[in-house]
Design goal:
InterPro entries: Aldolase_TIM, TAL/FSA, Transaldolase_1. Its EC number is 2.2.1.2. The chain is of the alpha/beta class. It has one domain: Alpha-Beta Barrel (TIM Barrel), CATH 3.20.20. Helices cover about 45% and strands about 10% of the residues. The protein contains 18 helices and 11 strands. The strands form 2 sheets. The chain has a 9-stranded mixed sheet with strand order 1-4-5-6-7-8-9-10-3. It has a two-stranded antiparallel sheet with strand order 2-11. About 50% of the residues are buried.
């Protein structure tokens, strides 16, 4: 999925007003954007405001948005003017979505990539297609950057997941392309798989002032190593861990959570949040693969929640009285870092060996599955480009 990103001067992903948009029920295209929403008074969102006038409507979505950034995981392209997105993510899945639309302003960005002389000059077909993919990502990302005030997150090819220098080289390529489009580094963030090599790439890139987002995080070790590396954002897929736990056993981290009567995904998010705040890391925590409204309520206070359209619609359709707290209190606060108990093994300086030993079968399987999905998407884009090259009118 993708990501809501901060304005250039902020370390958060979207403006501090914590705005999201009222969504429609039309089918969405594969992309993720942070969207604007009419602001509510903070006191009303917190549930401790005086009784509101009859005309004031406060929804559950209004209330929860007072504690965490609520990020829709889909958006309809036609709604750009209507809903004014503040930030966006560009990925292989987005390129596939653009290519599948009969008419969109972004198609010219893909056509321009396919007409690129530098790519055309490459002898090997696989190198040529990879070049087209990189150019297309940057072209579409630049178009988005000129339409949103916040930052654009760009997915790094998952085929580079175990190649630190390859990841860094690709990020530098994209940075150069964005610079040619007059998009500055502070408007960008790069989405990298949380392998050890990806975490190392994040550390080196962050030291250059390039902000990174570590994805496919399914274990405490991955998240802790990413935070130590200085990653700007770490993303945990809580629902996928829950699904794994329902059908498997033998993962020490998940088994420990289940023995305590906790949900595996929610428990990991809480633990990582506590770890980040205990150690004062700059990393922001994002959760995805949200399955229901209760997940949202259980994670209030976390930095960012990517929620499916149907859950956001359900939250928006549920009207609540601002006087009724209804549990609208943060479940996660920075103070949790002072009270959470970590083992000595969890507080080590993580390296490749310790990370590998601590991953566990759930993280290993889910990481591999996620990478496979991203690789397949990239290949589908390249196959599509091979069929439509050269573009019309070129």
């Amino acid at each position: 999925m993708a990501l809501s990103i901060s304005t250039p001067t902020s370390s958060s992903l979207v403006p501090a007003s914590r705005q999201v948009v009222r969504l429609t029920s039309r089918s969405a295209k594969p992309a993720t954007f942070s969207l604007r929403r009419p602001p509510l008074a903070a006191a009303a969102a917190a549930g401790n405001a005086p009784t509101s006038p009859v005309s004031e409507v406060v929804t559950e979505l209004d209330a929860v948005a007072g504690f965490s950034e609520i990020v829709p995981d889909t958006v309809v392209f036609d709604d750009f003017e209507r809903f004014a997105p503040t930030a966006a993510t560009v990925s292989s899945s987005l390129l596939l979505g653009i290519a599948g639309l009969p008419d969109t302003k972004f198609k010219s960005a893909i056509d321009t990539a396919l007409a690129d002389g530098e790519c055309n000059a490459l002898e090997k077909p696989e190198d040529r297609m990879s070049c087209y993919l990189t150019k297309a990502l940057a072209n579409v990302g630049a178009e988005l950057a000129h339409q949103v005030p916040g930052r654009v997150s760009t997915e790094i090819d998952a085929r580079l997941a175990y190649d630190t220098q390859g990841i860094i080289h690709r990020v530098h390529e994209l940075l150069n392309l964005y610079n040619q489009h007059d998009v500055s580094t502070d408007r960008l963030l790069f989405k990298i798989p949380a392998t050890w090599q990806g975490i190392e790439a994040s550390r080196l890139l962050e030291s250059e002032g390039v902000q990174t987002h570590l994805t496919f995080v399914y274990s405490f070790a991955q998240a802790a190593a990413a935070a130590q590396a200085g990653a700007s954002v770490v993303q945990i897929f809580v629902g996928r861990l829950r699904d794994w736990a329902r059908n498997h056993s033998g993962d020490p981290e998940i088994d420990e959570a289940l023995k305590k009567g906790e949900d595996a995904g929610l428990a990991l998010a809480k633990k990582v949040y506590a770890y980040i705040h205990r150690n004062g890391y700059k990393t922001k925590l994002m959760v995805a693969a949200i399955r229901n409204k209760q997940d949202v309520f259980s994670l209030l206070g976390i930095d960012y929640i990517i929620a499916p359209l149907k859950i956001l619609q359900s939250l928006e359709e549920s009207v609540t009285d601002p006087d009724v707290k209804y549990g609208y209190v943060p479940k996660l606060t920075p103070a949790i870092g002072k009270t959470y108990n970590f083992t000595e093994e969890e507080l080590v300086k993580w390296d490749q060996l310790s990370l590998s030993a601590a991953m566990g079968p759930a993280a290993e399987e889910l990481l591999a599955s996620g990478l496979e999905g991203y690789v397949n998407q990239a290949r589908r884009v390249e196959e599509l480009f091979g069929k439509i090259w050269p573009p019309p009118n070129v």
